[in-house]
């Protein structure tokens, strides 16, 4: 093949394609059996997209070494798709470490929330913070996610609850989109909680009549680009009818529906999401059997968040039942002041141990299915020709070490690559073994 190329990853012990036939998502047996090549190489072109994947000898015969800007010898190493974190709340000020102590002492999430803590505590601090202050902490968090292997992250607003602060958060997310290597899917989550002094109906009317029209105006002017709309559909927060109104209004201005449902109480959120054509529904600890069936029929992804169930001591989501029913199961870290986790490898480990997913299913959920949940599985989530060259190289001869090892990823992840450019290189891995 003529012409310059950006990157050659040569002779990987394992090249984990995840998908091998252009699948938009993987379910049932597809998620249980991933495509993996041995002794393989991969080429990324100057446009940041994958140009060739195959056996090392075949790639060597097809390309001259002189055409590459960079060559990385992956002998004894594994190459995987960049991880996709399908649910985070990373823009905020004021941590809630004091509430972790309260939870350990027995206080429930809603007890803390109703006492003015939880989301309301973070809203107070986020409203006071400047845009530059929020961007500085957000950038640091994204860098930590990148070093843990995440190359595409869903990022929500939702700690403003008034138009001014929600737009401030969305501008911060837009700024990161334009200035950082990591991929971002932006979510408007103004219905994260009912603001103090308003009823749920009043808050719903404000979002539909004021927030969303302004959002549409800023989208059309190119000032910000928002991908998804989110609502916290929960008892004591936004009920089913308010959720329906907000999600439909968001859909009407072109946003993908991707919302919180059936977390603390059975709300029939999954059934609503399936009816509205939701791309994804998150949490689902209390989802009904009919909700699971409805999501499978509607091709709505279930974004499961094992960190949340773990930290709040909730019932675990029914991952096995969802997988058996044919639901598209994805994973997210739910990074926020209540679930402070940057690491998708740790999320996958928890999904395997606590939700009884296999390692293959967990990796599919953190790559192609998480990309599907964000409407990006045509460009992200697997190592196939034409897709964006987002990759993770680990210092191990078996890819499963990324899940098997609980923590300590600073000594395992060797390179993180976005669009064929090395954005993180860990020199420590050159002299260390994974075992």
TrEMBL record:
Residues 79-423 form the Amidohydrolase-related domain. PANTHER family: IMIDAZOLONEPROPIONASE, IMIDAZOLONEPROPIONASE-RELATED. This is Probable imidazolonepropionase. It catalyses: 4-imidazolone-5-propanoate + H2O = N-formimidoyl-L-glutamate. Keywords: Histidine metabolism, Hydrolase, Iron, Metal-binding, Zinc. It is an enzyme of class 3 (hydrolase). Belongs to the metallo-dependent hydrolases superfamily. HutI family. Coiled coil: none annotated. It comes from the Eukaryota. The lineage of its organism: Eukaryota, Metazoa, Chordata, Craniata, Vertebrata. It comes from Mionectes macconnelli. It holds the Pfam family Amidohydro_1. Its EC number is 3.5.2.7. Pathway: Amino-acid degradation; L-histidine degradation into L-glutamate; N-formimidoyl-L-glutamate from L-histidine: step 3/3. Its cofactor is Fe(3+). GO terms for biological process: L-histidine catabolic process to glutamate and formamide; L-histidine catabolic process to glutamate and formate. The keyword Metal-binding applies. The gene is Amdhd1. The keyword Iron applies. InterPro entries: Amidohydro-rel, HutI, Metal-dep_hydrolase_composite, Metal_Hydrolase. GO terms for molecular function: imidazolonepropionase activity; metal ion binding. GO terms for cellular component: cytoplasm.
């Amino acid at each position: 093949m003529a012409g310059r190329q950006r990157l050659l990853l040569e002779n990987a012990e394992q090249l984990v394609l995840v998908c091998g036939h252009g699948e938009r998502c993987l379910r049932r047996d597809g998620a249980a059996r991933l495509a993996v090549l041995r002794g393989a190489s991969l080429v990324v072109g100057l446009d940041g997209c994958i140009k060739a994947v195959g056996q090392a000898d075949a790639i060597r015969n097809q390309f001259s070494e002189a055409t590459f800007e960079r060559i990385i010898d992956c002998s004894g190493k594994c190459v995987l798709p960049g991880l996709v974190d399908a649910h985070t709340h990373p823009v905020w000020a004021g941590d809630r470490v004091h509430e972790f102590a309260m939870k350990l002492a027995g206080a429930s999430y809603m007890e803390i929330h109703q006492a003015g803590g939880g989301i309301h505590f973070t809203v107070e601090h986020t409203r006071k913070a400047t845009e530059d202050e929020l961007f500085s902490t957000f950038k640091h968090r994204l860098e930590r996610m990148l070093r843990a292997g995440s190359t595409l992250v869903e990022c929500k607003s939702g700690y403003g609850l008034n138009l001014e602060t929600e737009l401030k958060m969305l501008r911060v997310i837009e700024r990161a989109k334009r200035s950082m290597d990591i991929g971002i899917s932006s979510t408007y989550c103004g219905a994260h909680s009912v603001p103090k002094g308003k009823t749920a109906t009043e808050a719903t009317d404000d979002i539909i009549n004021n927030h969303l029209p302004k959002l549409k105006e800023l989208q059309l002017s190119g000032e910000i680009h928002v991908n998804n709309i989110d609502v916290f559909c929960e008892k004591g927060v936004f009920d089913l009818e308010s959720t329906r109104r907000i999600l439909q209004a968001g859909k009407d201005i072109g946003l993908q529906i991707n919302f919180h449902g059936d977390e603390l109480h059975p709300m029939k959120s999954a059934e609503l999401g399936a009816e509205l054509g939701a791309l994804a529904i998150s949490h689902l600890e209390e989802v009904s059997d009919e909700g699971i069936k409805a999501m499978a029929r509607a091709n709505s992804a279930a974004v499961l968040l094992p960190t949340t169930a773990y930290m709040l001591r909730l019932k675990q989501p029914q991952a096995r039942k969802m997988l058996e029913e044919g639901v598209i199961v994805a994973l997210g870290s739910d990074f926020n002041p209540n679930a402070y986790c940057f690491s998708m490898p740790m999320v996958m480990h928890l999904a395997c141990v606590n939700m009884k997913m296999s390692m293959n299913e967990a990796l599919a959920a953190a790559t192609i299915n998480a990309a599907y949940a964000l409407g990006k599985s045509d460009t992200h989530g697997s190592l196939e020709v034409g897709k964006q060259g987002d990759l993770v190289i680990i210092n191990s001869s078996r890819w499963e070490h990324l899940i098997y090892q609980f923590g300590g990823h600073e000594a395992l992840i060797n390179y993180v690559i976005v669009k064929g450019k090395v954005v993180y290189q860990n020199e420590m891995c050159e002299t260390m073994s994974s075992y």
